[in-house]
Design a protein that fits this description.
- The protein has helices at 17-31, 73-88, 98-114, 128-131, 140-149, 158-168, 192-198, 218-231, 245-254, 270-276, 291-298, 329-340, 343-358, 362-381; strands at 6-10, 35-40, 55-59, 92-96, 121-125, 152-155, 174-176, 204-209, 234-239, 261-265, 279-282, 303-306, 321-324.
- It is α/β, with parallel strands linked by helices.
- Strand 9 (234-239), helix 9 and strand 10 (261-265) form a beta-alpha-beta unit.
- It is elongated and about 70 Å long.
């Protein structure tokens, strides 16, 4: 594509899936020459320490006034979108996570239209904005209307597409564009000395990465590991942080596993941990795509996950890892033990995981977004 666009990307700045995907997408688009304008309430985490001449960050700062118990973030966001659209001459606005970004994008577009400025809006659904938060009766009508008013609507998995249709009963076409992996960042690196420092006696390393919310069921990771640790020398690395962390630390103490489990906390270079890990555990009760699993697979780390949501679209049972029912810690542990005790099978799964991840490479997914941007801009220009 020859035309270089000015693209506004509205996202959350956190380590959560939608923020990570939006940031990685923006950086990839910038690398291809597009001018990217991130609009968020904080500098995106994945941008930390990185500079590209054609990437700008515009922070949304809600007004704090004694009258407001809760500052009106949506209004401030609309104002910031208007400012960036006018002065940076945006060609298209891409909002990630429907709440409240789709609503804010739609209203900004309407205001600009009254000024004779066209700005197509593309909304990408990521998961809990539809499957959890979006189903709340107090916001569902707003979410539905905002989605229908978007010029284009995308979802990160076929599961999420069908879930959206079944609950909201919208007529808008939803384009499935899967999440992607940047192999320039995520690939297996040789850190033998690093692994030895964590597992000096050759213990198997199991890993889990999440934001430690209830839906991630980190307790299932720990209870599965308890069974695994009794069958073979092993250690567990828990990467991330969140509301459930203190409870999980208490559980580790209760089970007397503190010497075998390490809480790493938030980590920007998670690929370093994945590169030395033997197995990735993801027991979520809801997962619209499972980006963490894909990142592990790109680092040649097999995955044992639940069989819900979009995970079966990534993790192939008996090929790249295993799928289990939600809450079945015994099955998760059994699969882990069987795989880790079989070096030949484990090596095969490593190879298969990497091969499967390549099907979601950035080079294959990015053109779908670029084509959608061009189509949206051309339709508005007609």
């Amino acid at each position: 594509m020859d035309k270089k666009l000015s693209i506004g990307i509205v996202c959350y700045p956190t380590f959560g899936g939608s923020g990570v995907v939006a940031t990685e997408l923006g950086m990839a688009l910038a690398a291809k020459g597009h001018n990217i304008h991130f609009i968020s309430y904080r500098h995106p985490e994945r941008l930390s320490g990185q500079f590209q001449a054609n990437i700008s960050v515009h922070e949304v700062r809600p007004q704090h006034y004694p009258l407001f118990e809760f500052p009106p973030y949506e209004l401030t966001l609309i104002g910031k979108i208007l400012e960036v659209a006018r002065f940076e001459k945006l060609d298209v606005l891409h909002v990630h996570y429907a709440i409240p970004h789709a609503f804010s994008g739609y209203n900004a577009r309407q205001i600009l239209a009254s000024e004779g400025i066209s700005l197509p809006v593309i909304t990408t659904l990521h998961g809990t904005d539809v499957t959890l938060v979006g189903k709340d009766r107090s916001v569902a009508p707003v979410v539905k209307y905002s989605m229908e008013q978007s010029d284009y609507l995308t979802a990160v998995s076929h599961f999420l597409k069908e879930e959206t249709y079944s609950y909201f009963n919208i007529s808008k076409e939803i384009h499935v564009i899967h999440n992607f992996i940047d192999f320039g960042k995520f690939s297996k690196k040789e850190f033998g000395h690093f692994k030895t420092s964590i597992a000096p006696n050759g213990e198997k390393l199991l890993v889990h990465v999440s934001n430690f919310r209830k839906v991630k069921r980190v307790q299932d990771v720990i209870r599965s590991f308890e069974i695994v640790s009794k069958a073979l020398p092993s250690k567990l690395l828990l990467v991330g942080d969140g509301p459930e962390r203190s409870k999980m630390e208490s559980l580790c103490r209760e089970l007397k596993l503190c010497d075998q489990i390490r809480f790493i906390g938030k980590l920007s270079a998670v690929e370093d941990i994945l590169s030395i890990s033997d197995l990735f555990l993801l027991p979520s009760e809801t997962e619209s795509f499972g980006l963490a699993a894909l990142e592990a697979m790109a680092c040649e780390c097999p995955v044992i996950s639940t069989n819900i949501g979009g995970l079966p679209e990534i993790n192939i049972h008996g090929v790249t890892g295993y799928l289990t029912d939600v809450g079945d810690v015994e099955a998760m542990a059994k699969h882990a033990i069987d795989l880790l005790k079989n070096p030949v099978l484990h090596a095969e799964f490593r190879k298969n995981a990497y091969g499967r991840a390549q099907e979601f490479s950035l080079d294959k997914i990015l053109p779908f977004y670029e084509a959608l941007y061009i189509k949206a801009v051309q339709e508005v220009a007609v």
